[in-house]
Design brief:
- This protein is an all-alpha fold and 195 residues long.
- The relative contact order is 0.11.
- The longest helix has 28 residues.
- It has nine helices and no strands.
Length: 195
């Protein structure tokens, strides 16, 4: 008879996600994981598989919740311009005013693992495409409402926004001057005016 698990898998996965997000895949040891998750190695292996499988599960959990948060933020305002302004300035503020400099777990994975691991290349690219679709959806809503110009190419602009979001997230790891990043965001947001 199989013994029931004596821990909450979702809580354990959340804990794994936090430590992987903070330290990255390579720098996170199994000891880090057992300490943070509050379970022993055999339980990790039984529930999640090896370290890479656990990392993949944590990344999938992150990308699903991140995409849902981004979509909710962009849908929370009737003004698409205001929604994008609050989203991008919020990303910047979080990095400069927060306690940690973790960045985006998916972008971190894109930099650390995607160049030499096809599975993570695909997973991170899927997240980029999903975010692009969320951005495009918001831009098209703005065009339909008359807030944005009908001449805007919603798809191309969404791809540009995702590219800048990823670039800013990576660049902020080196703590550039806040004004440098703020200016980049302000220039990007001008594109919503068709400029």
């Amino acid at each position: 008879m199989v013994r029931p698990r004596e821990f909450d898998e979702e809580q354990a996965l959340d804990a794994a996600m936090q430590i992987f997000w903070e330290k990255g895949f390579e720098a996170t040891s199994l000891s880090d994981l057992t300490t943070k998750m509050g379970i022993q190695r055999p339980s990790i292996y039984a529930a999640f598989g090896d370290k890479k499988q656990l990392f993949e599960a944590a990344l999938r959990k992150y990308t699903q919740s991140h995409a849902a948060r981004v979509r909710a933020k962009l849908q929370s305002r009737s003004s698409v311009k205001k929604a994008f302004y609050l989203f991008f300035t919020g990303v910047v503020a979080e990095e400069y005013e927060g306690d940690s400099n973790r960045g985006c777990f998916c972008v971190n994975t894109m930099v650390e693992l995607a160049p030499h691991d096809e599975k993570f290349e695909v997973l991170t690219r899927e997240h980029q495409m999903y975010l692009s679709a969320v951005f495009q959806e918001a831009i098209e809503r703005g065009i339909r409402s008359g807030e944005l110009e009908t001449t805007l190419d919603a798809r191309a602009l969404a791809h540009t926004m995702v590219s800048l979001l990823i670039g800013i997230t990576v660049m902020m790891k080196s703590r550039p001057a806040r004004s440098f990043v703020d200016q980049a965001v302000a220039t990007l947001l001008l594109l919503l005016d068709g400029k």
